[in-house]
Amino acid sequence: QASFGAGGQRHFGEDFGGPRRVQRGFSFSLNDMPDNAVIAGESPFYVGAHPPIRDHMSLAQKWNPLDGISRHWAETAREALEMPSIGVAGKGAGGPGALASSFLKPGSLEEELAAAERRVKALHSRLFELESNAPSGAAPAAQGHLKITVPRPLDHGKLGVAVKDMTVVSIVDPRAMQHSWSVGDRILQVNGAPVCFMQEFANELNKALAANQASGKPLVFDIWRHAAPAGPAQPAAAPLPAPAGDFVP
């Protein structure tokens, strides 16, 4: 004997007082619940109705579980760079490939190449701007603590400058100017050896000349150069002969 029990289940060989009536229930989705019912914990159906009668709700009253899901952070700098350009392709700052590069996969080789190309273009634009705004005329002469390197002395081991009280007072050979000597330079060291007096300077200079002749070691002079006076640039003075009594290395 077969019978149907609660929930529509079929039983064989069992009899529990005769067949029972199949009981039915109902179910509903959270999508059918209005906002006020969800908040108050109430049912969207009339209480006591048989069968339950659904309340009349418009689509705007239905609760949407996706409500409130949105972006809560600001746009990053990388996203701003990758946003596609708006306008006609080939115009504007992006250039012909700006629109295509915005759709490249982040981290890919193509994206890295596109970013490198944008950086190069930005550097070129910056260099052009700096060159356009650069003041005309010769650059100001260096000042302060400087080094003068003489790879090879002039004829007969000369430097081509006249020195008095450790200060260059004149240029006696025009070739000395190619080593950046300037009138007013005060000599502080010769090949790293401090010199405070003319005798010390003469001794260290002879050692440096001997080392240069033996091994080709260049002569390195530490000097102090004062700032040039303000005003229009003056033409370079012609080399002058050393006054009597000055040391001419």
Automatic annotation (TrEMBL):
It comes from Alexandrium catenella. This is PDZ domain-containing protein.
